Q: What sequence folds into this?
């Protein structure tokens, strides 16, 4: 595993004349748990380098041509050989396009140390959208910088988990240094108007006339501006090493950072606070975010600044309190910030699932399926609600998203299918809810492109789909069902199907595919027919589509022929069959009232039997204590014995077994009870829901489920 850190061209990665970027990288890399796999790339002419793994990219002396282009092209050559798992680009968003074009990777993080809207590669909306699409994470040194990046972008990006804020860090001083403070007022930075040096100079000149025992220490230089103040107590120290600046702060009582411009962060105020100075800052950019306790100037004028300094000098107790609180409440230590950086790296480098870290997993689950709200409860007792109940009982936050109802309510002449409205509503829902997992069940109108956008916007979201329809090649709607499964597979982390994946050849190998039993639910399957005297021997119900609700005229399938043959062969047995011979299907409470009077239920699906496939009627039959009659070619013998289910190998065999059980009440009750108990133990909705979560998130791998081979 490897991490490459790319510095801006001309950044001096040297203790001799370091920039804020170099200091940040050095301080956090030295104590990172990943230091052994990190390599910093830069180009500096200074002989002395920081003591972290570093590669200097040497550039040719040239008059014509771009050193920056040469720099990035040479890094590409290094990286082509190195093959890093994560590339962190600091303060040069414009490097990203070249790297993507030449390395064809998607493992980049861009760190912003300046105003994004002032930098090449992030000024325009299109440039920032490009960064959002192609970066693993984008990291800012203040919330102000993050806010600037988001200016003009759509709302969906505002809470994007790609956008992180990691402040710069400093070494925290000891409270003991406060007693050794001198009567020093310190300014560190460029001696120009942008930094407010002209205002500072005028203000302290006034202050020093009154407080003659105080001194002013000025650190910095500026070749482009010449701002001069003459006073014997103003000491111009020029450029000092970082070590000497920190030593100066330890001795200073007051530090002033009075920038006119919108500072993205402000390392000087951060380090002044860490070393126990009473800090005065202007209310610009990210400066207020650098300190916990400071005097903030809202109206930056000479009079206001002079008054604030004088107030701290006159009120020693207040000054000392600011100094103590600056250290006591300081939290942006190198260790704190490095831990944040390493935690974000964990998810990419170590492939640690955040849910493995949590003591108790509580996930936000967006469950997209047809909850049939528009059908007035007729299809309430369905598999989607069983799974949903399982998610809720496990203690998760679950938001049901009924796709078919939404399509019905929102379609119009401009959006005839309702699909446009559905996908737009999904996008808005994800923005507000921020799911950890999106679970889809037969969500055909959610388009693949929309899922891809959600993956781009929320890279840690996991997406799963469950599918209940038959997938046998000789069965009904094979090509259509195959297309439905494969339609979104590019963005799916896990498929859950009610057929054994080993029996299906078309499933994609880049997606995890699992067999999912049809679940029973304790609030749905409430009957115990094995305790009752029942008048009906065999129950069966079919329909020509659950949403249609009634039979189609003239429509028959292979089950019609099988059922008629079975009735002819099985004399003196009472059948109660719905959906046959113009007898309409039954639903909801009517269904339960009818099934309550049956001894056996025939688990017959359309098409040739295939390994483990069954419709959800198996849960309704065995879950209510009926004896389940099932074709042995489904291979349910891998889960149940003939004391728990009845397996038949032919029409004649089924007929014989029905007759035997209908005449043996003790046997019927025994099989019905044993079947229900075992099915509820291993195939209940809580376990199925847990299985979906664990496999989708790829966690709790040590747990093996009863139905796993």
A:
């Amino acid at each position: 595993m490897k991490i490459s850190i790319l510095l801006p061209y001309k950044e001096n990665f040297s203790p001799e004349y370091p920039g804020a970027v170099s200091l940040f990288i050095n301080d956090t890399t030295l104590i990172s748990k990943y230091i052994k796999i990190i390599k910093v790339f830069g180009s500096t002419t200074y002989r002395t380098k920081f003591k972290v793994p570093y590669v200097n990219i040497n550039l040719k002396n040239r008059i014509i041509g771009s050193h920056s282009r040469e720099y990035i092209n040479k890094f590409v050559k290094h990286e082509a050989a190195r093959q890093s798992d994560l590339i962190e680009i600091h303060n040069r968003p414009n490097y990203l396009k070249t790297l993507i074009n030449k390395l064809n990777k998607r493992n980049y993080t861009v760190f912003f140390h300046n105003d994004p809207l002032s930098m090449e590669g992030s000024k325009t909306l299109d440039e920032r959208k490009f960064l959002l699409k192609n970066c693993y994470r984008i990291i800012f040194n203040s919330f102000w910088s993050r806010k600037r990046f988001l200016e003009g972008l759509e709302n969906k990006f505002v809470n994007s988990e790609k956008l992180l804020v990691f402040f710069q860090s400093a070494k925290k001083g000891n409270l003991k240094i406060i007693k050794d403070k001198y009567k020093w007022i310190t300014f560190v930075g460029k001696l120009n108007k942008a930094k407010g040096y002209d205002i500072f100079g005028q203000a302290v000149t006034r202050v020093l006339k009154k407080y003659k025992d105080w001194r002013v220490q000025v650190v910095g230089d500026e070749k482009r501006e010449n701002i001069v103040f003459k006073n014997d107590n103003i000491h111009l120290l020029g450029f000092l090493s970082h070590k000497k600046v920190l030593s100066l702060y330890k001795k200073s009582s007051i530090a002033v950072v009075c920038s006119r411009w919108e500072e993205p962060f402000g390392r000087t105020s951060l380090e002044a606070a860490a070393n126990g100075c009473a800090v005065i800052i202007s209310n610009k950019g990210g400066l207020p975010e650098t300190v916990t306790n400071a005097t903030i100037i809202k109206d930056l004028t000479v009079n206001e600044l002079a008054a604030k300094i004088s107030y701290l000098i006159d009120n020693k107790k207040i000054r000392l309190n600011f100094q103590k609180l600056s250290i006591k409440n300081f939290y942006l230590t190198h260790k704190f910030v490095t831990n944040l950086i390493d935690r974000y790296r964990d998810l990419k480098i170590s492939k640690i699932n955040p849910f493995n870290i949590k003591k108790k997993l509580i996930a936000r689950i967006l469950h997209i399926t047809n909850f049939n709200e528009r059908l007035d409860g007729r299809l309430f007792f369905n598999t989607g609600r069983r799974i949903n109940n399982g998610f809720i009982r496990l203690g998760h936050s679950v938001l049901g998203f009924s796709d078919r109802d939404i399509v019905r309510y929102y379609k119009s002449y401009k959006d005839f299918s309702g699909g446009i409205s559905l996908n737009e509503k999904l996008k808005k829902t994800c923005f507000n809810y921020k799911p950890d997992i999106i679970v889809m069940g037969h969500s055909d109108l959610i388009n693949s492109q929309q899922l891809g956008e959600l993956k781009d916007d929320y890279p840690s979201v996991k997406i799963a789909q469950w599918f209940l329809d038959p997938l046998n090649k000789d069965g009904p709607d094979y090509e259509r069902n195959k297309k439905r499964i494969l339609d979104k597979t590019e963005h799916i982390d896990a498929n859950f199907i009610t057929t054994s994946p080993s029996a299906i050849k078309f499933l994609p190998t880049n997606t995890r595919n699992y067999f999912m039993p049809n679940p029973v639910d304790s609030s749905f399957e409430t009957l115990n027919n094995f305790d009752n005297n029942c008048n009906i021997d065999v129950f069966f119900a079919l329909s020509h589509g659950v949403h249609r609700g009634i039979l189609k005229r003239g429509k028959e399938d292979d089950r019609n022929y099988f059922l008629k043959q079975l009735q002819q062969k099985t004399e003196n047995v009472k059948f109660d069959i719905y959906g046959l011979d113009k007898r309409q299907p039954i639903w909801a409470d009517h269904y339960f009232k009818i099934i309550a009077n049956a001894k056996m239920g025939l688990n017959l699906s359309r098409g040739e039997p295939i390994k483990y496939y069954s419709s959800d009627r198996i849960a309704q039959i065995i879950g209510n204590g009926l004896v389940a009659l099932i074709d042995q070619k489904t291979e349910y013998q891998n889960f149940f014995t003939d004391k728990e289910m009845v397996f038949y190998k032919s029409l004649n065999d089924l007929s014989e077994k029905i007759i035997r059980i209908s005449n043996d009440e003790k046997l019927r009750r025994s099989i019905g009870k044993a079947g229900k108990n075992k099915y509820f133990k291993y195939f209940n909705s809580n376990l199925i829901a847990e299985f979906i979560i664990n496999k989708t998130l790829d966690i709790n791998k040590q747990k093996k489920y009863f139905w796993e081979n």
User: Anything to note?
Assistant: Residues 355-515 form a domain with the Rossmann fold fold (CATH 3.40.50.2300). Residues 665-682 form the longest helix (18 residues). The chain has a mean pLDDT of 91.
